[in-house]
Design brief:
Shape: elongated
Radius of gyration: 22 Å
Distance between the termini: 53 Å
Strand order of the largest sheet: 1-2-3-4-5
Largest sheet: 5 strands, mixed
Order of helices and strands: HEEEHEHEHHHHH
Length: 200
């Protein structure tokens, strides 16, 4: 008899949302009392679950692996060529005994790939980071971001800081001559602005 596993419903719902928002067709499923989501796009088919206990990831992986292999071998889907991923999420920190088992599982490449993520926060951003290997590439914000590393850095900083402070810091940096000493006063002033913004 299969012992009861405690699904992290909140984390699983977030994973479902991230996949759906990224263009996957998602379907809720259950097998052996294990709730999971099966999701497909043009490139991948993934089976995702989330457990409250890190040790349960090892126990539920074979069930998801079988479900995924069945889906990949379904002849009704025609000649699709997919990569298959079993994705196991938990917000828990694994014990020392569990860590080795999870490590071994992550490097088991038989039949399907396995992505194992621990200490996942129940936020869209953290779940999206955990699922990044199977998500489509995002469209660049501008052509400059593709060619200018400083523009890319500024774009990332604007996501969490005040735009004016980021613009001021970038202007001061770009105005400095690479051969000269940096204008320490301007840099310190911009650093203080950014630190004050982070403290708010």
């Amino acid at each position: 008899m299969t012992p009861p596993f405690e699904t992290d419903i909140e984390l699983l719902k977030l994973a479902r949302q991230v996949l759906a928002d990224s263009g996957y067709r998602v379907q809720d499923s259950m097998c052996d009392d294990i709730y999971y989501v099966i999701a497909e796009d043009t490139d991948n088919v993934v089976a995702v679950t989330a457990m409250l206990e890190g040790g349960d990831l090892i126990a539920v992986e074979p069930v998801l692996g079988r479900a995924l292999i069945e889906r990949l071998s379904d002849t009704r889907v025609g000649a699709k060529r997919w990569d298959g991923y079993v994705i196991l999420l938990t917000s828990a920190t694994p014990t020392s005994e569990t860590s080795q088992g999870l490590f071994d599982l992550a490097y088991n490449l038989i039949n399907v790939r396995r992505l194992i993520r621990v200490r996942v926060k129940p936020t869209i951003a953290d779940v999206a980071r955990s699922l990044r290997p199977v998500l489509p590439l995002t469209v660049a914000v501008s052509e400059a971001v593709l060619t200018d590393p400083l523009a890319s850095l500024a774009e990332r900083m604007r996501e969490s800081l005040v735009t004016a402070a980021v613009s001021s810091a970038m202007t001061a940096f770009r105005a400095s001559d690479p051969g000269d000493e940096f204008d320490r006063e301007a840099i310190d002033s911009n650093r203080d602005e950014l630190e004050a913004e982070l403290d708010e």
